[in-house]
Design goal:
The complex is a heterodimer of chains A (292) and B (270). Chain A is an all-alpha fold and 292 residues long. Chain A has eleven helices and no strands. Chain B is of the alpha/beta class and 270 residues long. Classes of the chains: A mainly alpha (292), B alpha/beta (270).
Amino acid sequence: MRYLQQEHVMKRMNKRLVWNRVWKGVFIAATSFALLALAILLYRILSQGMGYLNFDFLTNFASRIPENAGIKAALVGSLCLMAVVAPVSIILGVSTAIYLEEYAKKNKLNDFIRMNISNLAGVPSIVFGLLGLTIFVRMLGMGKSILAAGLTMSLLILPVIIVAAQEAIRAVPKDQREASYGMGATKWQTIIRVVIPAAIPGILTGSILALSRAIGETAPLVVIGIPVILQFLPTGMLDTFTALPMQIFDWAKRPQEEFQYVASAGIIVLMAVLIFMNSIAVFIRNKFQKRY
Amino acid sequence: MVQILEKQQPTSPIIQLNEQSTVMESKGFNLWYGEHHALKDINLAMNENEVTAIIGPSGCGKSTYIKALNRMVELVPIVRTNGEVNYRGRNIFEKGYEVEELRTKVGMVFQKPNPFPKSIYDNIAYGPRIHGIKNKKILDEIVEKSLCGAAIWDEVKDRLNQNAYGLSGGQQQRICIARCLAIEPDVILMDEPTSALDPISTLKVEELVQEMKENYSIVIVTHNMQQAARISDKTAFFLNGEVIEFDQTDTIFSTPSDQRTEDYISGRFG
């Protein structure tokens, strides 16, 4: 007795092949929808902002006259912000991930910590803004400074970096560690010579994506009370500053139509910075990728 | 060494087969994975410059046992042990015995070739480097000597700077053996080193084991009984976490004293 009857199989064949094509179509449609929305957005921003984008735009301070408005203070401010966020969040995040993956014992407490770090990654950024305002700005008296904002942003993206680094570390095959331990290497030697080199592409990719999020983030800066219009550049970490998304937000809410175009030009600059950072991530991933 | 033996012989229940000196021995050694009693009262002694083979069906504890000999088994967090495993007369599980020290003397070759994703040179130099050798000339010498010792120098001497992953599985395994030799161990533990290799590579590794026993004591786990018969001096047969029989390899394979050993060797189970 055969269970699969040929004519029965053939009768269903057409139907199966049709459904196969239908689902492919559904997935292509979903992808195109997202791409289309992105294309419209890019077109609007580029067509509006290109006219205002020139060298003066990068070197001028903010101004009441749209033609003279520039992004210098915000661009420099954002870069200074990154100068705080990048080292603080990467060093803290990667160290935490190493502890959780390599040292922490498997028990209920550590499982609880791990789970909550993942949850923290989903906490709205404005909550981190309030945290920063309470602790860094007021309690530690840092004021509305680059340092306070940078530390707040670091807290915001720390969970993302930790989770990314944990995954990269976990992906290093067990036999690589065994090989190292088997020769009498200490845990530290194994981590620094075997685990981290193998995990570095994943760690850096995750970190740079997290930094990209930080550079585009506005809410925590609003809560901290970062000023919008500045006519000077910060000279130290405790100086106040403004940042790209704050500046763009300010321009976008102004009534004059010209400022909408200036805002678009600002968005182009912000996007250029983001694309630059993401391409570094891609470059690092491709360069250091190792096969097992 | 002699003194240690004299001291232990009167009380030791260890099966001492000849006058050669013992390098590693376990006495009443037990191991649990959580609640599972994986090794039960293991008494074995491994001699200097001999190949000791451990055979047995899957899940009999042979891999667990060999991993206990360099405390690699401790990487599994739920492991508990009691009893002794002595290396050169000192219990490796005693408090204050550093695993790093033990593993420098008792090296290991794993089942699946596991070179680092580095150059061949850096793979071999890894061990000496972690132990503090920085001098390039000394490292060069160690690399050459180790690769010669693993009978792979001629095959790779012109491409020491290439990634070890470009080599075949059999070559990778010999690189791993060379990497183990580079720390100049006393004992080499091999956990089914040929199970992932083709027959020709297997033959090369077997020949290599034969040569290496001139200078090292070797413990090898294998599920290939012919392999045990070909290369080992002594054989221990494990079943369900116990040593059923431990004797000269010739004796085990010709006139085993236990019915279960005979059944396993003649292929009636396992």
